[in-house]
Amino acid sequence: MDLHETTAEVAHRVRRHVVDMCAGPEGGHLGGSLSSVDILVALYFGVLRVDPTDFAAPDRDHFLLSKGHAAIALYATLAERGFFPVAELAGYGTSSGRLMGHPVRAVPGVELPTGSLGHGLALGLGFALSARLARADRRSFVLLGDGELQEGACWEAALGAAAQRADNLVAVVDRNGLQLTGRTEHITGLEPLADKWRAFGWAVREVDGHDRDALRAALGSAPWEPGRPSALIARTVKGNGLPFAAGRVGSHYALLSARMAAKARAALDEHPDGDR
Q: What residues does the Transketolase N-terminal domain cover (predicted)?
């Protein structure tokens, strides 16, 4: 089986895990988790230098989920990658489990707790600069939500990264166009988003955020320009793979009933590679 088929199967399982966790006692952030699944799978199954058996290895690449509300997608990806047993996902949101609504360091593979939006890029820059001081070739990857870019701290970190010529830093924007209360362009417009990143001194590319081959090619080849941090704008669909959730603001958070969870699983099984 080739790598593309393997990642397609992994992404399908990750989406099913997301649905299962959203059918748990606390529900979960369904839409933004599903929009980021292919990005996470591309990273963990083709780009990141990580070892599930030694997740604190000093030469590892660093990944930060700045959009921490998509934790269930990260948990599912980490479990599929072997950081902890897949069976542990069933404990999400329970008092006896360690999988919380936002990432915590108790979970193997999670570098730092995140979810206070706007902070992840600065933390990722810190990891990138520490690698430079250690004369190490490790890279730092940060996944941001597009609504998160309304936070000024993101752009302060972007300016700082460019000023420091941190070309081992890669920002990935999950550009699904939606946030909790509506469309990003109706709340605080971001476009022309690629030009904004370029104006802040970054090398920029855009890609279909559900095309894992394109994601792997772009992310794996960073840095794209010497002396410039890299920003990848991944065009995605919130709620990808579920017809009743795709592109809908209401998919932001969901507590799925047994009936809706069954409907969601059936939709995923009918189109196992999402909306691609």
A: 9-272
CB 110 within 8 A of CB 104: yes
* pLDDT per residue as tens digits for the range 186-217: 999 999 999 999 999 999 999 999 999 999 99
Reference 231, options 161, 176, 156, 136; nearest CA is 161
- DSSP summary character for residue 93: T
From 157, 80, 70, 150, select the one nearest 115 (Cα to Cα). Answer: 70
Which pairing describes strands 203-208 and 140-145: parallel, antiparallel, or unpaired? unpaired
pTM comes to 0.97
Structural domains of the chain, with CATH: 3-270 (3.40.50.970)
Distances in Å between the alpha carbon of 59 and those of 95, 133, 153, 173, 244? Answer: 34, 13, 28, 25, 43
Residue 57 reports pLDDT greater than 90: yes
Nearest Cα residue to 200 out of 192, 209, 188: 192
Q: Which of 207, 241, 251, 206 is nearest to 8 (CA)?
A: 241
Q: How far apart are CA 133 and CA 9, in angstroms?
A: 39
